Amino acid sequence: MFTLLPRTVHEESSWRAPKRTDVKGRSVHLRLGVVPITVRSAYVPAVRDLEGLYGGHLLAGADPEAIRIDVRATRRGRSLRRRFEVCGDGVKRFSVWTADGVLPHIEWAINWQIMLYLPRYYEIHAAVMELNGAGAVFAASPQSGKSTLALGLLARGWRYLSDEFALIDPDTLAVHPYPKALCIKEGSFGVMGQLGLVDELGRRYCKGKKGTVTFVPPRRFGEGCVGRPCGVRHVFFCRYVAGARPMVEPVSRAEAVLRLNRQSFNFLKFRRRGVALLCDLVRRARCYELISGEIGATCELVESVVGRE
User: Fold this and answer.
1) Which of 64, 94, 117 finishes a domain?
2) Is 61 helix (H, G, I), strand (E, B) or coil?
3) Where are the beta strands (DSSP E) in 149-270?
């Protein structure tokens, strides 16, 4: 998850050609669903971690339209303390002072670049899951527990498309996969234990003010766990309340359009077409507000709603 940018940065209407920079280190090329990515890092362990997370998504070479992430190592000040600069398509996004912060900031920088320069798809801040060919969008603001909910549904046999973006084709309204590793914050490490994912807690990283995180690759749940492009049949607006009894309440389609607009990254690029797209999307879907609490009870509630539609 990351902080929503001001709307003015979303006015890019076309792909910006990546700026190539020379960075000593090691490269990895991968394609996550519809998103090609190249990462070159002076901190080689971060590249090895990416290769471990995305073993089934690696490419032999760079896609010419890939998002390009470069990690440079520099030393500043009298102490000559090492610092890592994480750049997206030639633009510095983050400065990282500890090695355990490099990987989560690479992930963060990739998300920024998708948000800014992936022009084809309408983008909503959401987790996306699929069950029996029907897509469910879990739209939420940061810190709302959508990644944890996606993890719980994955463990129950749902298919995973993303825990960050609903990438919607404006022509077909199909939502497309961006199956990045799920980023789970320290507050949900107990949930991982409940789901039998204790082994995944061995690698922990620092994501700045967001604290300690770990990454869970979706392939941890077996072959076929990543969903294919599908229609959206359910939209949930998620809000996590610790200790709460999970609840769902219907949301009108008009209200759903307004809420999805607030969670959209590139509405200003689509404008009127974006309004029409959201209207068409919710016309085909059932929309709810979801208050989530304990993970097992929340997943059961979601499944009862989806199953009875």
Assistant:
1) 117
2) coil
3) 159-162, 165-168, 175-176, 182-185, 205-206, 212-216, 232-240, 247-250
52: which residues sit within 8 A by CB, 6+ positions away? 217
How far apart CA 16 and CA 77 sit, in angstroms, is 34
C-alpha pair distances (Å), 149 with each of 131, 146, 295, 297: 14, 5, 7, 11
Tell me the pTM: 0.88
Q: Which domain holds residue 208?
A: 122-308
pLDDT tens per residue, range 110-167: 999 998 888 789 999 999 999 999 999 999 988 788 999 999 999 999 999 999 999 9
Q: What is the pLDDT of residues 184-207, one digit of tens each?
A: 999 888 888 888 887 777 789 998
Mention every residue, 6+ apart, whose C-beta is less than 8 A from residue 168: 121, 122, 123, 124, 174, 175, 176, 232, 277, 281
CA torsion sign for 68, 69, 73, 74 is positive
Q: Enter the tokens of residue 293.
A: 């609490």
**Pairing between strand 35-41 and 67-76?**
parallel
Q: Are residues 85 and 232 in the same domain?
A: no
**What Å distances lie between residue 7 and 4, 110, 128, 252, 265, CA to CA?**
8, 18, 23, 25, 8
Whether residue 5 lies inside any domain: the answer is no
| CB burial string 223-255: b at 16+ within 10 A, e below | eebbbebbebbbbbbbebeeeeebebeebebee
Domain boundary among 66, 92, 117: 117
Question: How is residue 202 written in tokens?
Answer: 């061995």
Backbone angles phi, psi at 81, to 5 degrees: -65, 135
Quickly list H helices, the chain: 44-53, 102-117, 146-155, 189-194, 253-262, 267-270, 272-283, 295-308
